[in-house]
Amino acid sequence: MCIHRRCWCWTSLRSASTRRAATRSSRASTGDSTPTMLVLFVFINSLAGGAAIVQTRRSGVYARALAAPVTAGTLVLGETAAYLALALVQSALIVGIGALVFGVSWGNPLAAGLLIAVWALIGTGAGVLSGAVFRTPEQASAIGPAVGIGLGMLGGCMRPLALVPGWLRTAGHAVPHAWAVDSWTVLLSQNGGVTDILRNLIILSAFAAALLTLASFGLRRQLTGAAPGTRS
């Protein structure tokens, strides 16, 4: 009887230890992947959200707004601000759930905040540009996420670029995702701060400026083309 009881206790202790180890491993894995999921899904959702701008264009809402004393630049600025707010809210949800539910540490608060803000600007530029380029909401909803997934794969969101050939690693850094993932790696794996990712932040800011400029020009052109003679 005593032997059986000791065996049962030993087995229970080993099972409990195994479960705790599995839980720690699962949380560590989640902590490693959560920042890349932020990079991937904020961008994808922003691209898909361009469908709303396309639908607004097609429904004539912009044309009616431009009949009032409202300039095309004001409408573009309003759409940009709305998309930026959505990207920031998505980022805050991912950060909050990651920290509270999965115990994810996001590293240096200032550096993480700057990185999140710059990535939200990149997502905003991509989303507004999507709304200016696609002709139908269905195109934006179908093609946008596919493009986002492809860029995410190229940029290392699904497989670390350290594990791919050198030429593919170089090609991956042609998209902003790779620079964002590199920055999160420095913050979380190397306990880096703002100075450690400053170069990456500058590069990401350049991506953001380019996308926002293209998006602003593209949407403004769509608005003034749809309503000739309007103020820009």
Give me the strand/helix succession: HHHHHHHH
Number of strands: 0
Percentage beta strand: under 5%
Largest sheet at a glance?
Answer: none
Report, as a whole number of angstroms, the end-to-end distance. Answer: 89 Å
Helical percent range?
A: over 70%
Report the principal-axis shape. Answer: elongated
The parts where pLDDT drops under 50 for at least 5 residues are 1-31
SS field, number of helical segments:
8
Instruction: Compute the CA-based radius of gyration.
Output: 23 Å
Question: Would you tell me the structural class of the helices and strands?
Answer: mainly alpha
Overall average pLDDT: 85
Entry summary:
With 232 residues, the protein is mainly α. Helices cover 81% and strands 0% of the residues.
Description:
This protein is mainly alpha-helical and 232 residues long. It has 8 helices and no strands. Helix 1 (2-59) packs antiparallel against helix 7. It is elongated and about 55 Å long. Residues 1-31 have low confidence and may be disordered.
Write the SSE topology.
Elements: H1 2-59, H2 61-67, H3 72-101, H4 109-133, H5 137-154, H6 166-172, H7 176-189, H8 198-226
Helix pairs in contact: 1-3, 1-4, 1-5, 1-7, 3-4, 3-8, 4-7, 4-8, 7-8
Keywords:
single chain, disordered N terminus, mainly alpha
